Amino acid sequence: MVINGGENTVLLEKLCTYFKNTEAMSRITTYNSINHYTIHICTPIDSLRNHDDGLHLMTKHEELLEALKDSHLCALPQSASQMLELSKDPSNGPQEYAKPISADLGLSTQILRFVNSSFFGFHHKVTSIPLALSLVSVRTIRNFVLWNGLFTVLPDPHCGPFSIKVLFQDALRRAVFARIVTERYTKLDSDEAFTCALVQDMAIPVLAAKWETEYADMFHKSIFDHVRLSSLEREAMGWDHAYAGAVLAVRWNLGELISRVVSQHTNNVFHGDTCSASPIVGITALSAFLPKMHDSQWYEVVPFVDAYQKLFGQKLTDIGSILDKTDAASSHLTGLINLGAVSKTLSDYWRESLANLHKTGEDDMMVFEELLEEYFAAQV
Question: Do 95 and 123 fall within a single domain?
Answer without folding.
Answer: yes
